[in-house]
Amino acid sequence: MTLVQMLVIAGAFVIAGVAKGALGMGLPPIAIGLMTFSISLQDSIAIMVLPTMATNIWQAIYGGGFRPLFRRFWPMTLGAMAAILVVAMAFNHLGSPQAVGWVGAVLIVYSLLALSAWRPKVSRVTERWANPMIGLASGAVAGITGVAAVPFLPYMQALELDRHELVQALGIQFMFMIGAITLALAWQGGFDAGNSLGGVIALGPTMLGVWLGNRIRHALSAETFRRIFLVALLAIGLHMARSLL
User: Fold this and answer.
1) Residue 81 pLDDT grade (very low, low, confident, very high; cuts 50, 70, 90)
2) What's the mean pLDDT in 43-47?
3) How many other C-beta atoms lie within 10 A of the C-beta of residue 169?
4) How large is the angle between the packed helices 193-219 and 222-240, nearest 10 degrees?
5) Rounded to whole angstroms, what are the CA distances from 137 to 59, 90, 144?
6) Which pairs from 128-135 meet CB under 8 Å and 24+ separation?
7) DSSP string, 80-113
């Protein structure tokens, strides 16, 4: 791994960590999107696993609401994990070069939906059948692209959750989804000494970014930072989706 690649990886995780600390989400798509400017998608996903898992374990536990939130969303969790493993292992497509453009398309769809004025609301009654369906759909997308974003994130933002519940619920779901992606990558032989070491090294920049994100969250309004984050995500998605043209 060259010095330039290491600097790109470090910078990617600082920026992604800032988003994670400020918004409670965004680490995998931002980190993967930025790393693909310098390294392959499969290596980017492999490096992303450890820092993402570390931050999501903290996010899932912090706040004291793990048990009620897990009971509420376990059908989504189970569906997502099953779909990730089945799709990734059946098609052997996770992290392949062909998936780069589709990762970009996922980021474009998510950022455009989040930037629009449309704000759907999902009731607790609807959750009974919607949670497992969203889990399966999100897992299928993640099983191909390695990014758990659509339709999972827009759906979670439409639920009747306060800000603290939403952040913790996202951490819980991401923790299990990343766990399934890790298993699928291992089955495909996606880890090697280089990208495994890269994941360990990325922990430092990630934690620095999370710390900065927490500081920024108190300095800026949540809506202002949210829009900056989404515009940046849209730009990354457009760059990656060029391979589909």
Assistant:
1) very high
2) 89
3) 25
4) 150
5) 23, 16, 11
6) 130/155, 131/73, 131/75, 131/76, 131/79, 132/75, 132/76, 132/78, 132/79, 133/79, 134/76, 134/79, 135/75, 135/76, 135/77, 135/78, 135/79, 135/80, 135/83
7) HHHHHHHHHHHH--TT-TTHHHHHHHHHHHHHHH
Task: List all residues 6 or more positions away from 93 whose beta carbon is below 8 Å from its beta carbon.
Answer: 87, 99, 143, 144
- Can you tell me the distance from the alpha carbon of 30 to that of 107, in angstroms, rounded to the nearest whole number? 9
Does pLDDT of 228 surpass 70? Answer: yes
pLDDT digits (tens, 9 = 90+) for 106-162: 888 888 888 887 777 888 899 999 999 999 999 998 998 887 878 888 899 889 888
Listed residue (214, 205, 218, 224) closest to 24, CA to CA: 214
pLDDT at position 199 is 93
The per-type count for the chain, helices as H runs and strands as E runs, is 10, 0
